[in-house]
Amino acid sequence: MVIDENRLAALHNEAVTGNPEAARELGRLLCLLPDEPDGEAWPLPHWPGEPWLRAALTARPDDASAAVLLAGVLAQQIERRYVLGDPDAAIARRQGEALHLYRAVLRTDPGHPTARAGLEVLRRPATALTSDDTYSYYRLDGTPPGGGTARLITPDPHELRWAAGSLLGAADLALTVHTPVDKPHTLQLPEGLLPAGLPELPGPALPPGHPVRLALDRAEVIAYYGYAAEPRSQRRLLSSAR
Hints:
Elements: H1 5-16, H2 20-30, H3 50-59, H4 64-84, H5 88-108, H6 113-123, E1 137-143, E2 149-154, H7 157-163, E3 171-179, E4 182-188, E5 211-216, E6 219-224, E7 226-230
Antiparallel strand pairs: 1-2, 1-3, 2-7, 3-4, 5-6
């Protein structure tokens, strides 16, 4: 499906009238964009998908898709706040809410893969997802002008092309294809552009909100579906939660 500003505007118009499906879809798509976007068509908070996912859950508290997406956003905020040195209380609030969301989904669906994986990451980050190679997805990495790294993860080629505008032209741009049937394959993009033809992804697609473990520069990190930017400073592992 074509993704453009017209589609975002249409979803926004439906979401503000109380349509929970539109709010969830808008929140999901905004998770693929930078948390500080330029040229937005309407006022956006620091994490643009968060208020729409919350609206979807307020209307439908049993919406598992919205719940795991929101929990993934909160998990990324937890890591960012560790790096920035925020107060422990602020981190604990987000961690507690993410745990609550994952556990609520699992009470209804004990086998929900994204909720199980997300809960594992929050409780045992050092060992979580070490054998999870079930899904296929694209990963686009680059170095923003201010340094650090920016990353976009999605299994959908249309979403990748649409959301990649935030990274095209970044230094050291690289596209990595992850599949359950082969080792990750990385294509360097010296021109700062995606290739005309993207490799097809075999196997199940990575679900929205699902965390993955990545081996980067001799270090392993947890990443999530969507867009994320990391500062130069070293990342800290999430603390264990019981």
